[in-house]
Design brief:
mainly alpha; disordered N terminus; DNA-binding; Arc Repressor Mutant, subunit A
Chain lengths: 203, 203
DNA sequence: GCCTCATCTGGACAGTGACAAGTTATAAGA
DNA sequence: TCTTATAACTTGTCACTGTCCAGATGAGGC
């Protein structure tokens, strides 16, 4: 399918993927609450009810976008760890936290969708799987740090929840626009500040 | 104004307050993303465009609701502290955290509106004031604990941010439905667990 | 009594999600 | 190759939404 020619075949060819791409762009531009299925369809150049065939309804498309979001989310954490000089367990956990922040700031609307929205189908199995994978990553970081698996040791699971709550709260408040002092910092200062805050949980 | 009689006077009398009351109910029932100005007007028994006169647009009403939310939020924290046996600074901070959770679980939609929504006018001065008052309360808790004011001591401000991030993250994740282990706990167990998590930041 | 103005009504418009019925292309089977 | 079943997409419609605008109403000051 050559996009440069004006040939509009009745069948798009890869509409599902195109809708996801456009959906992500629309989401980033309008936010969750301004999101519109018809807008996405228009963006792709397709009829207003074409998306329904692939995703059912708005919840369906948003759930697919959220699932994709959790994969990018995991990527962001892993990327920071890959770029990490040290192999120290504590440093690796901090790297995950910084990746968490990277993603949050790069894709705020997607982040809000993944964690805050009522408009996504939380039962979507693909979404559940990719969210679970992201959680497992964090659990693994803690396992490396404590020497025991959170899935077997309750104390380690408490550590997971504490670390997760801390990063997530920091990221959420940053997005909410209510953490003024930190918002005005540039990236290096913000990261240094985050390290100080996060140190309370990594020990 | 007697609500039991069917007397519909042209002027409502206290429409603004009635809209806020109904708005809070509608918000709780439908969530932020299902919120509808017309629905609120219908609930009060008034024409569909009556709210505009008092709040401008949807953002305006939601901002007023959020401002009211922050006041209830502060009340919830203070109520827990008032019910606190000990006057220990650490215990008082924990009490604030538990109040934070109380509010979050009692009014999840309002909580999401206050911290997560793009649909509220964040520049609203009343909203800014009540959000600021809630923040000041937390800052005061830390001041009592550390002996220095966060507004003067950077280290204390870091403590504020850490404590705030922790509670907020915990509360948000609880609402997001992605913190399964904690979600299945009953209230006493959840509070005990929260104490363990929060202890990492109170020292 | 009259006038002014904040308050509230009712209608209009463009946009929305969901549904139903129709159209087209593709692939499988004779 | 021809038919046929089915997946992919379109078109039209419905009830609903937020916002704007021109009116109707009534309370309080004069």
């Amino acid at each position: 399918m050559d996009m440069t020619t004006e040939k509009h075949s009745y069948h798009h060819g890869d509409l599902r993927a195109a809708l996801l791409r456009a959906g992500e762009a629309v989401l980033a531009e309008t936010g969750v609450e301004g999101f519109s299925l018809r807008r996405v369809a228009r963006e792709v150049g397709v009829s207003h009810s074409a998306p329904a065939h692939h995703f059912g309804d708005t919840q369906g498309l948003l759930a697919a976008l959220a699932a994709e979001g959790f994969r990018q989310f995991l990527d962001a954490m892993q990327a920071r760890q890959a770029a990490c000089d040290s192999q120290d367990a504590g440093e690796l956990l901090i790297a995950s936290g910084l990746g968490y922040l990277d993603f949050t700031l790069a894709a705020p609307a997607l982040f809000k969708l993944m964690f805050g929205s009522d408009r996504v189908d939380v039962c979507d199995p693909d979404l559940d799987a990719s969210a679970g994978a992201a959680f497992d990553h964090l659990a693994q970081d803690i396992a490396r740090l404590r020497g025991t698996s959170p899935y077997e040791d309750a104390a380690a699971m408490t550590d997971v929840m504490a670390a997760w709550s801390m990063v997530h709260g920091f990221a959420s408040l940053l997005l909410s626009g209510r953490m003024h002092p930190v918002q005005e910092m540039d990236q290096p200062a913000r990261e240094a500040f985050f390290r100080q805050v996060f140190a309370r949980v990594t020990g």
